[in-house]
Design goal:
Structural class: mainly alpha
Distance between the termini: 59 Å
Largest sheet: 2 strands, parallel
Strand content: 5-15%
Length: about 230
């Protein structure tokens, strides 16, 4: 029996009805002969509420206690999800990462050292990053992020088919018959093979969102402090 992992973000489990809807979706997948693992985020703005509460009781909350506090959001969600599935007549059990044997060691690397560790030494098997770039075609993205030895291929990943596809596609006109199939194939390989999750950031280009009169745009992140709300 194959395993299907279904991820539900905070907006997908923001209230009881959405939790039940997510439970039904998982049940439908299970009824298709799949073994389902659900990964569930904290409900809606629950994490924001917890951060705000921490700020109300402490000017400088300890990192350990913030970890303890914020992890409760997901524990609430997984327990409610298991209850919903059971109520719909199916079996489920809620588990934390530690309970299923996932153990991690988090290394907080200062920004000045991160570039060396991730992009030069390429010594981090898994990491979170805030990379943004103006890569206006997907072949250019794969050129920088997936070809062996290239700067943003931080795990120094190599796949022979991707190496060939990038070389074939990089200077190919976008309206060429093979362009779209090559790009789709690279995405198929990447999502199956490489532990990298690209996130689309539509707000990266602040002008496209109507922001005006800002003074700074530090590291592509808009400094909102000088902005003021105006009415038309």
């Amino acid at each position: 029996m194959s395993i299907v992992v279904q991820k539900f973000g905070g907006t997908s489990v923001a209230d009881a009805q959405k939790i039940i809807a997510a439970a039904r979706k998982a049940i439908r997948t299970q009824q298709q002969g799949k073994q389902v693992v659900m990964v569930v985020s904290a409900m809606g703005h629950n994490t924001d509420m917890l951060v705000e509460l921490a700020g109300q009781v402490s000017d400088n909350p300890p990192d350990r206690e913030m970890d303890m506090l914020l992890s409760t959001g997901e524990q609430v969600s997984v327990a409610l999800m298991a209850m919903a599935i059971e109520n719909l007549g199916h079996k489920a059990v809620s588990l934390t990462g530690a309970q299923i044997g996932i153990k991690t060691e988090i290394e907080k690397i200062p920004g000045a050292n991160w570039r060396t560790a991730a992009l030069v030494d390429k010594r981090l098997p898994l990491h979170l990053e805030n990379f943004g770039g103006w890569l206006n075609t997907p072949d250019y993205y794969f050129f920088w992020a997936y070809k062996e030895g290239h700067l943003f291929n931080s795990s120094n990943y190599r796949n022979e088919e991707i190496e060939t596809l990038v070389d074939e596609t990089l200077h190919m006109p976008m309206d060429a018959p093979d362009y779209a199939p090559n790009i789709k194939r690279m995405f198929e390989i990447a999502f199956e093979d490489l532990p990298r999750i690209p996130l689309w950031q539509p707000a990266l280009n602040v002008a496209a969102n109507g922001a005006t009169d800002y003074e700074f745009w530090f590291h592509r992140q808009l400094d909102v402090r000088p902005l003021a709300v105006t009415t038309a």
